[in-house]
Design goal:
It is a single chain. This protein is mainly β. 6% of the residues lie in helices and 32% in strands. The chain is built from ten helices and 91 strands. The strands form 18 sheets. Strands 1-2-13-4-9-10-11 form a seven-stranded antiparallel beta sheet, with no helix packed on it. The longest helix has 16 residues, at 173-188. The radius of gyration is 41 Å and the shape is globular.
C-alpha cells in the first residue's frame, strides 16, 4: 500500500514530500504537538516503517510510535501520543502504554537512544499482537488483543523533529518462514523465552572450554555467545546430558578447542527433555488458588482483588513440586499502604489440587514452612524469631524474594539475590512453593531465567567459577599485558531499573526523571584504590521531587548485586552521604555532616575517597567535608544514587583538577588558580554573591557562575560580586563557555545597589538607578546609553577571554580585556557603598596580641597561646564578622578558634591575667566556639565533624562567624556557609577568636551592616494576650489582616490512613483510629501562626487530635502509627500536656484537646525566642516549650475521634502585625491599669471563629431564643459578639472566672453555663465612656417580662414592677410554657435587684424555669433567662442576699455583698440576653 501520512496532524507539524515527511515546527521552543498518523489503516503483517531524519539535543524524550483505533479524520489531536485514549497502544522509550497507562515497563530497544538514520516500525500480526521493529529487527510482542482496524501513530516528541515514511509492507519472506517455524515449534512443544532468544546463526555450545584464550579459536564474540548459552544451566548446577535446541536455521558448530572438561547442566526448572522433544515445565502458579486471587501473564503473575477492602485470601502455590536446588523466585510488583503485615513465602507438602485453601497459610497446621516478617513459622508456629536482618514487611515494589530446597534437605531463602542462610533442615522431598499475598502485598510475578539481572548474575557466577579473577575487575578480562596502565573509572553497566549508562560509561542518567524519583542507583565499574577520588558532576536536575543526589561506597560487586530502589535501603556493606548526613547500612551515623547535598544545583560536583587508613571522606565542589566514617574495608565500589531532583551525572576523571587530600596538603601557601574548577583557595576574597538571577547557578565556592538551560533561556542570569569593590581593585572574570544560539553576549559593569536590596530583573540594563554597564560597545547608565563605540566590544569576545572592571580613586570606571586597560568608560562614580564601616578588634585582648592597622589586624607576638581577640561591638542579627589569615607558623600545632561569647570585653580587668590562655578555657560567660571540626559550649563538646576542619586553614583563607536571626551560630570558610554550628545563641554576643598554634596573624575583611529602618523590621510578637473579658465591642481593625501568612499545605508523605484533598489543604483519616500523622510541605516561619480547623469528629473512638512541631525534614520520613512514637526532635501538645520526644515536660497546659468540638481552630506558633505557643480559636495559651530548632515543620496527628482537619489560609493575620487603620490603633490603646492588670476594651473573637457554627449547646439556646419570637431589631447584627459560656467554649477561649471593670474597679464573674446574645445598644449612649467606667452585673427575670423590658430599654420603669410576677402553669403545645403576670404594678419606684455573679441572679427565685420542646430533637428542656447589664457606679447599693441562704454562693463574693439594689432610672444599660437550658 502507499505509505503516506494523514493530512490531519498535530498543530506544529508540517508535511512535505507527498505527505511522506513530517517535520515539527519550532523544535527548539516546543517539544510536543508533533503527532502524525498513517493515511490508511494498517493491514495485518504490514510493518509501517519510518526513518528518523533529524534530532535536537534541547529536550529529553524522543520518538514515540504505536497504533490507535481512532480515525484521524475526526480525531481531536492531543499534545502527545500518550494522551491518546479510546484504544491506543504506544511504545515510549522502552515502555508500552495503553490509553496512557503503562502495561509493560521494559520492552525492546529504548527509542530515546535511537539516532538520526535509524528505522522504527510498528506492526499488527494476524493474531492481533503488536510488534515493534527497530532497524529491521523484531523486538517481540508488545501487546495482545488488538482490534483489526488500526492506524499507525508517530509522535515527533522531544528530541525527534523530523521523520520520513520508508515503507508499509510485510517483513522479508525468510523472516516470515523463520517466524512461522518458530510459532509451529512453540505450538507443538513450547520452549522458554531464553531458548528461543539464542542466536540463530549458531547452535548453543554444550561444553565449557578448557581455557578462554584466543588460541583456542574462542574469540570475544564466541565467548559472549557461549556465556549467553551457558546461562541455561540452572541455579542447581546439577549435571545431565546435553540437549538439542530447536532453531530456525542450522548454524556452525562450536569453535575448536572446547574441551569436555565440564558438561553444561540442563536441569533448568523450565525446560526438560522428554523423549528427545522439548516440553515446557516452567514454574508457574497453580490455577487453583485463594478466593481473591486473579492470575495473569500465563499464570506467572498473581494479584489479590479488592486490596483496599480485603487483606487475606491471597494464597497461591506453584503448579508442580520444586526440584532439588531449584530457585523459586518472585518479584513484588505492587503494594498498598493500608494494612500492616505483608508478603509471606515458603513451602508446603500439600498438593494444591487437593488443598482447601486457608485465609492465610500460617493457619495451616501441617506440612508448611513459611517466612513471615523476619521469622520462620513451621505449621503456623514460630520456630525462629529473627531468621535474618531483612523483614519481608519492609520490602518495596521491585524487590525479589526467592527460596530453594537444597539436595541435603536444607531450606534457604533469598532476598534480592542474597542468601539468608538455612531456615530449616530436613525439609520434605516433595514440596510446593507457596506465596501468601497478605496485607500490603497485592501483586507478584514469578521471575524466570530471562530476567536481565538474574542473567547478569548467573553470567558472572559462571565466569567466576572458571576464573577467580573474572568478575572482580574488568582488567581481568583484558587481553593486554600492560598492567601498569591504570583502568579508567566508569559506571558499571548493571544499574537501577530507571537508570541508563551512556557516554561510554562516563555518564549516568534517569531518562524519565519527571516520572520516577528512585531506582537510579549506579556503581563504579571497579573498586576504588586507596586515596583515589571518585568525583561526579551533576549535569541535570528536575524540580519535581524532593531530595537529590546521594554518594558513597559499598562492598557489593555491581555484577552480582540486585540493585535496590535507593542505596540507603541496603542493609550491609554500604556508606552513603545523603542530604547533610551520613548513613551506614541504612542507619544514620552522622546527623549534620558537611554541605547539604539536597541544595546542590546543576554544575556542582560531589566526590568520595577512601584513604589508606580506612577513613572515608566526601567532597562538595572540591571542598573536603572531613572524615565521615572509619574502618571502611578496602576494595569498595563507588556508588551514586540519582535520587529525586538529580537526573544526570558525569564522572570527572581529570585528576589534575582535583584537590589534594586534606592530610596531604603541603606546607606553606598552596594557592590554586582562581579559575580551577575545584580549587579550594584563591588569591582574592572576591566571589559571586549567593543572591543572583533565577537562571544563574553559582558553583565552585562562589567562583563560577553559569546560566542553566542556556539553549532555551538567554537572560535572567545576573550575578554580582559578594562585596563592594575597593578603589583601584580589579574584579576580573574569564569566559569559559559560550553558545551560538543567541545574539548579544556578556554584559559587565558596576552598581551601587546592595544585592540584598535588588529585585533581580531580566538584565541589568533594565535598572534605572545607580548602575553603569558595558553592553557591546555602549556604555549605559541607569538603562540609558551615555556613550557609544567604547574601546572594546563585549559581543566579539570568545571563550577564554578575560574581562575586568575597576573604579579608580578619582571615580573613573575602567574596563580591562585580557589584562589590557581599555581606558575610561565613564566618570563621576560614587565611592563604594560599603554597608556600614569596617569592623575593628576590641582594645581588650590576650597578652600576646598586638592590634595594628587601626584595629583591623591582630598579631600574636610570641608563644602559641594568649591570643584571644574580640570584636569591637556586639554583632547584630545576620551580621558577618570575617577575618583573613595573614601568617602561619608551622612549628606549632593547633589552629584558629572562632565563635561567639556573651562576655563583654569592657568587663575584662586591665591586668595581664585578665584573660585565659586559650579560648577553650574562657568560661566566665557563655561562649560558643569551633575548634578544628568540633563545636563546644563553655569548653564542653556539643558536636563533632562540623564542616571543614579549621586546622587545615592556610594563608589567604577567610573565616567568618555570624549569629543568624534564628538564634543559630554559623561559621563561613572562604565565603561558604558550613551550616548551623550551635542553636539557642543569646542575642547580645561578641565575635571572639583565638590566634592559637600556627595562626599568628589575621586581618578583618568584613564590615558592619546598616541598621534596619522601622519600616523594614519584622513585626514582633506581642506579649499582651487578650483575655476573654475583652469582648464588648468589635472594632473595624479586627476584621482585617495587615500581613498575609505564607500559604502552607500538607506534605504528600504522611501516615498510611491519610487521604489529602482540596489542594492538600484538607486531610482525612479514612480508616482505623491511628496512622494519621501529617506534616506540612514548608517549614514554619518564625512569628507566623499555623492553624487547622477540626472538620469532623467520630465519637466511636476516644482521645483526639495532637499538634506540635518536628525538627527533622519530613520528605523521606517513615511515619509511625502515632505521634507519641516520635522520639527525635519532636514537640507535641496532646490532651492538656506537652511532650518532647515522647516524654511529658508540662502538665495542665491549656484546654484539653480531646474536648475540642468540630469547628475549633487550633494553631501553633514559634516566636522569635524559639518558644512554642499553642493557639485555640485564636487565643494564645502561653509558652509550651523552648529551644525549638529552625527550621521546624508543623505536625498534626489525626488520632481517635479527630478524622478530618483543614488548614486555615484565608484572612489569617500574622501574629504581631500592626493594624493599618489609625482609628483602630486609637481604639486598641483604650486600656486601663487596674491592680496591675492591663486590659483592652475592644477585644472580639477572631474573625474565623463563629461558635454559632460549632457549639451544640449554643445552637440549642439559639433555637429557644427563636421560640421567644423577639424582634431581631433588639439584637446586635454581628453574631460574633454572641458568646457561649458552656464548659467547652470558655475553656477553649481560655477565659478566667473573674474580671474587673469600671471606676472604681469592681469584680464580676463570667456567666459560666449560660449563653449570651448581644443586644443592640442605644446609639445615643456614650459607649466608650460606658464600657470604660460602668460596672458589670446580672439580673434574673422571667420569660414573660422579656419583651416589656426590651421595649423599655432598661430594667427600671415607673409604671411596671418586673419583679412583681409569679410563674403559672399552662398547657404545652410544642412551644415554651409562658408565665403570666398576676399582680398589678406598684405605683412607687421599683427596686431592681442585681448581682455581680450569675450564681445568685440565676437562682430560680429570680429567673424562673420554663419548659419547652426543642423543634429539632422534639425533646423537652427547661430554660431560664437573664440580662447582662452595665450599671452606673454610685447608682446602686451593695447589700446582703435576701433569700435567707446560709451557704456561700460564690467564693469571690460573700453573701453580705452579693446583692446590688438600684432604683435610679437610667442607671442601667442592657448589654446582653442570657439563656441557660437544662
Amino acid at each position: 500500500m502507499a505509505a503516506e501520512l494523514h493530512p490531519r496532524s498535530g498543530k506544529l507539524i508540517g508535511l512535505s514530500n507527498s505527505n511522506r515527511t513530517a517535520q515539527r515546527n519550532q523544535p527548539i521552543q516546543e517539544f510536543n504537538h508533533g503527532l502524525v498518523l498513517s493515511r490508511e489503516p494498517l493491514r495485518d503483517r504490514d510493518v509501517f516503517t519510518v526513518r528518523i531524519d533529524k534530532k535536537v539535543n534541547s529536550w529529553s524524550g524522543s520518538i514515540e510510535i504505536g497504533v490507535t483505533a481512532l480515525d484521524p479524520a475526526t480525531l481531536d489531536f492531543p499534545s502527545s501520543a500518550t494522551g491518546l485514549k479510546g484504544g491506543s497502544w504506544i511504545v515510549s522509550g522502552y515502555s508500552v502504554l495503553r490509553d496512557g497507562r503503562s502495561i509493560l515497563e521494559e520492552y525492546g530497544r529504548d527509542l530515546d537512544q535511537l539516532g538520526e538514520g535509524d528505522l522504527v516500525g510498528i506492526q499488527r500480526d494476524t493474531q492481533g499482537n503488536l510488534h515493534l521493529w527497530v532497524n529491521g529487527e523484531d523486538c517481540g510482542v508488545a501487546a495482545t488483543g488488538l482490534p483489526p482496524r488500526l492506524w499507525a501513530v508517530i509522535d515527533l516528541y522531544g528530541k525527534c523533529t523530523q521523520i520520513t515514511v520508508v515503507s508499509s509492507e510485510p517483513p522479508p519472506s525468510d523472516q516470515e518462514t523463520c517466524e512461522d517455524s518458530e510459532e509451529q515449534a512453540e505450538a507443538a512443544a513450547p520452549v522458554s523465552q531464553e531458548v528461543s532468544a539464542l542466536p540463530r546463526s549458531q547452535s548453543r555450545p554444550d561444553k565449557f572450554p578448557n581455557s578462554l584464550g584466543t588460541e583456542n579459536g574462542f574469540g570475544e564474540q564466541d565467548l559472549s555467545d557461549f556465556v549467553n548459552s551457558a546461562i541455561l544451566s540452572a541455579y542447581s548446577n546439577s549435571v545431565s546430558e546435553p540437549m538439542d535446541v530447536p532453531r530456525c536455521s542450522q548454524g556452525s558448530s562450536p569453535p575448536e578447542g572446547l574441551g569436555a572438561s565440564l558438561t553444561v547442566a540442563t536441569n533448568l526448572g523450565s525446560v526438560s527433555p522428554v523423549g528427545g522433544v522439548m516440553t515446557n515445565d516452567a514454574l508457574l502458579f497453580h490455577e487453583k488458588c485463594g478466593t481473591l486471587i486473579k492470575l495473569s501473564n500465563n499464570n506467572k503473575t498473581a494479584e489479590r482483588r479488592r486490596p483496599l477492602d480485603e487483606f487475606n485470601n491471597g494464597v497461591v502455590m506453584t503448579n508442580r513440586p520444586l526440584r532439588d536446588n531449584e530457585m523459586f523466585e518472585i518479584r513484588i510488583d505492587k503494594l498498598v499502604d493500608k494494612w500492616s503485615g505483608s508478603i509471606e513465602i515458603g513451602v508446603t507438602t500439600h498438593n494444591p489440587n487437593n488443598l482447601d485453601y486457608p485465609a492465610t497459610m500460617t493457619n495451616l497446621r501441617s506440612g508448611t514452612i513459611m517466612m513471615s516478617g523476619s521469622g520462620i513459622l513451621t505449621n503456623g508456629k514460630g520456630t525462629r524469631r529473627e531468621y535474618c536482618e531483612f523483614s519481608l514487611d519492609e520490602l518495596q515494589e521491585g524487590d525479589h524474594i526467592g527460596l530453594m530446597r537444597k539436595s541435603n534437605g536444607a531450606l534457604h531463602f533469598y532476598i534480592n539475590g542474597i542468601d539468608q542462610g538455612v531456615a530449616a533442615t530436613q525439609t520434605p522431598t516433595i514440596v510446593y512453593g507457596v506465596v501468601d499475598l497478605y496485607g500490603m502485598a497485592v501483586k507478584v510475578t514469578i521471575v524466570h531465567n530471562h530476567n536481565h539481572s538474574d542473567r547478569l548474575r548467573r553470567n558472572n557466577a559462571i565466569m567466576r567459577a572458571l576464573s577467580p579473577d573474572v568478575g572482580r575487575s574488568r582488567t581481568a578480562l583484558h587481553l593486554s599485558t600492560d598492567s601498569d596502565v591504570p583502568e579508567r573509572l566508569l559506571f558499571h553497566s548493571n544499574c537501577g531499573q530507571k537508570a541508563a549508562i551512556i557516554n561510554d560509561g562516563k555518564t549516568a542518567l534517569r531518562p524519565h526523571a519527571t516520572d520516577d524519583f528512585n531506582h537510579g542507583v549506579v556503581l563504579s565499574s571497579r573498586p576504588l584504590r586507596s586515596n583515589e577520588v571518585f568525583q561526579v558532576r551533576i549535569d541535570k536536575m528536575v524540580d519535581k521531587w524532593a531530595g537529590s543526589i546521594e554518594i558513597g561506597v559499598t562492598t557489593h560487586n555491581p555484577a552480582y548485586l540486585q540493585l535496590p530502589s535507593t542505596m540507603t535501603n541496603l542493609r550491609s556493606g554500604t556508606w552513603m552521604m545523603t542530604g547533610n548526613g551520613v548513613m551506614h547500612n541504612g542507619t544514620t551515623i552522622l546527623d549534620e555532616y558537611g554541605h547539604n547535598l539536597d541544595r546542590l544545583k546543576a554544575g556542582d560536583t560531589v566526590g568520595v575517597v577512601r584513604k589508606d587508613d580506612g577513613s572515608l571522606h566526601f567532597f562538595v565542589n572540591g571542598v573536603a567535608q572531613g572524615p565521615a566514617a572509619w574502618n571502611v574495608p578496602p576494595n569498595v565500589y563507588a556508588v551514586v544514587d540519582l535520587y529525586g531532583q538529580a537526573a544526570q551525572a558525569t564522572i570527572m576523571d581529570d585528576l589534575a583538577d582535583l584537590p589534594p587530600l586534606p592530610d596531604d596538603v603541603s606546607e606553606g601557601n598552596n594557592q590554586l588558580s582562581p579559575v580551577s574548577p575545584c580549587s579550594v583557595m584563591s588569591a582574592t576574597d572576591l566571589r559571586f554573591h549567593h543572591l543572583h538571577g533565577n537562571n544563574a547557578v553559582i558553583t565552585n565556592g562562589g567562583r563560577t557562575a553559569l546560566r542553566q538551560n542556556c539553549r532555551s533561556e538567554f537572560n535572567d542570569a545576573i550575578v554580582i560580586s559578594n562585596r563592594c569593590l575597593r578603589d583601584g581593585e580589579l574584579f576580573e572574570i574569564v569566559i569559559q563557555k559560550m553558545v551560538d544560539r543567541w545574539s548579544g553576549s556578556i554584559e559587565a559593569g558596576v552598581t551601587a545597589i546592595r544585592p540584598e536590596d535588588l529585585e533581580f530583573p531580566n538584565t541589568m540594563t533594565d535598572i534605572d538607578y545607580d548602575t553603569w554597564m558595558l553592553s557591546g560597545t555602549a556604555i549605559m547608565q541607569d538603562g540609558n546609553t551615555m556613550r557609544n563605540n567604547y574601546g572594546c566590544d563585549l559581543d566579539s569576545l570568545t571563550t577564554g577571554s578575560r574581562i575586568g572592571m575597576m573604579r579608580s580613586a578619582s571615580g573613573d570606571l575602567h574596563y580591562y580585556i585580557n589584562g589590557v586597560d581599555q581606558g575610561v568608560a565613564c566618570s563621576g562614580l560614587p565611592p563604594g557603598k560599603v554597608p556600614g564601616v569596617a569592623h575593628r578588634f576590641h582594645s581588650k585582648h590576650g597578652k600576646n596580641i598586638l592590634v595594628q592597622n587601626d584595629g583591623c589586624q591582630a598579631i600574636r607576638a610570641g608563644g602559641f597561646s594568649h591570643g584571644i581577640v574580640f570584636s569591637m561591638k556586639e554583632l547584630k542579627s545576620d551580621e558577618l564578622f570575617e577575618v583573613k589569615i595573614d601568617q602561619v607558623d608551622d612549628q606549632w600545632s593547633g589552629s584558629l578558634h572562632i565563635g561567639l561569647t556573651t562576655l563583654q570585653p569592657s568587663d575584662i580587668p586591665c591586668t595581664t591575667t585578665g584573660l585565659s590562655a586559650s579560648l577553650l578555657e574562657l568560661r566566665s560567660k557563655v561562649t560558643w566556639l569551633v575548634t578544628g571540626s568540633e563545636v563546644r559550649r563553655n569548653g564542653i563538646l556539643q558536636k563533632q565533624n562540623y564542616g571543614c576542619s579549621l586546622d587545615r586553614l592556610g594563608v589567604g583563607n577567610r573565616v567568618g562567624v555570624k549569629r543568624c536571626s534564628d538564634d543559630t551560630m554559623h561559621i563561613l570558610i572562604d565565603g561558604e556557609d558550613m551550616g548551623p554550628a550551635a542553636t539557642a545563641v543569646a542575642k547580645n554576643v561578641y565575635a571572639v577568636l583565638d590566634l592559637y598554634g600556627k595562626i599568628t596573624s589575621i586581618s578583618i575583611v568584613s564590615s558592619t551592616v546598616l541598621e534596619e529602618t522601622e519600616s523594614t523590621k519584622a513585626p514582633s510578637l506581642s506579649s499582651d494576650s487578650c483575655s476573654e473579658e475583652e469582648e464588648e465591642e468589635p472594632t473595624p481593625c479586627e476584621m482585617e489582616s495587615s500581613l498575609a501568612v505564607k500559604t502552607m499545605e500538607f506534605l504528600e508523605n504522611h501516615g498510611k490512613n491519610i487521604l489529602l484533598s482540596n489542594q492538600n489543604f484538607t486531610a482525612t483519616r479514612v480508616s482505623s483510629y491511628n496512622q494519621g500523622l501529617l506534616v506540612t510541605s514548608q517549614p514554619l516561619p518564625r512569628q507566623h501562626l499555623f492553624q487547622v480547623q477540626i472538620d469532623r469528629l467520630n465519637p466511636t473512638w476516644t482521645s483526639s487530635l495532637s499538634l506540635g512541631v518536628i525538627g527533622n525534614c519530613p520528605e523521606r520520613f517513615n511515619f509511625p502509627s502515632t505521634a507519641c512514637c516520635l522520639k527525635r526532635s519532636t514537640w507535641l501538645v496532646q490532651r492538656d500536656s506537652v511532650f518532647h520526644n515522647s516524654l511529658k515536660i508540662c502538665e495542665n497546659y491549656g484546654p484539653n484537646l480531646d474536648t475540642c468540638p468540630e469547628g475549633t481552630l487550633l494553631g501553633i506558633l514559634v516566636d522569635g525566642n524559639n518558644c512554642l505557643h499553642l493557639y485555640v480559636n485564636g487565643i494564645d495559651q502561653g509558652l509550651a516549650a523552648q529551644d525549638i530548632p529552625n527550621p521546624c515543620f508543623p505536625l498534626v496527628d489525626l488520632y481517635g475521634q479527630c478524622e478530618q482537619v483543614t488548614i486555615i489560609t484565608n484572612h489569617v493575620q500574622a501574629v504581631g502585625a500592626e493594624p493599618v487603620d489609625t482609628r483602630c490603633q486609637a481604639d486598641m490603646e483604650k486600656a486601663d491599669m487596674v491592680d496591675g492588670i492591663k486590659e483592652s476594651v475592644c477585644w472580639t473573637p477572631p474573625p474565623e471563629v463563629n461558635p454559632m457554627k460549632t457549639c451544640e449547646y449554643q445552637a440549642l439556646c439559639t433555637r429557644f431564643k427563636d421560640l421567644l419570637t423577639l424582634p431581631d431589631g433588639y439584637f446586635n447584627e454581628d453574631a460574633k459578639l454572641n458568646l457561649c459560656y458552656c464548659e467547652s467554649c470558655h475553656k477553649l477561649r481560655g477565659d478566667e472566672a473573674y474580671y474587673k471593670r469600671g471606676e472604681p474597679p469592681r469584680d464580676y464573674a463570667l456567666p459560666f453555663g449560660w449563653c449570651r446574645f448581644a443586644l443592640r445598644i442605644n446609639p445615643r449612649s456614650d459607649m466608650a465612656n460606658t464600657f470604660k467606667k460602668w460596672h458589670i452585673a446580672y439580673h434574673g427575670c422571667s420569660v414573660g417580662t422579656l419583651r416589656t423590658t426590651l421595649d423599655q430599654g432598661e430594667l427600671v420603669s415607673g409604671s411596671l414592677s418586673i419583679f412583681s410576677v409569679a410563674p403559672t402553669k399552662v398547657d404545652v403545645q410544642n412551644e415554651y410554657t409562658e408565665t403570666e403576670e398576676n399582680s398589678a404594678p406598684e405605683r412607687e419606684a421599683v427596686k431592681v435587684k442585681l448581682s455581680p455573679t450569675m450564681r445568685y441572679s440565676g437562682l430560680e427565685a429570680f429567673a424562673p424555669k420554663v419548659q419547652f420542646r426543642d423543634p429539632r430533637s422534639h425533646r423537652c428542656h427547661q430554660a431560664q433567662v437573664a440580662f447582662q447589664v452595665c450599671v452606673h457606679p454610685g447608682s446602686y447599693k451593695v447589700g446582703s442576699q435576701s433569700l435567707g441562704i446560709v451557704e456561700a454562693l460564690d467564693p469571690r463574693f460573700s453573701n453580705s455583698e452579693i446583692e446590688w439594689i438600684t432604683k435610679e432610672k437610667g442607671g442601667t444599660l442592657l448589654y446582653g440576653l442570657l439563656i441557660r437550658v437544662e
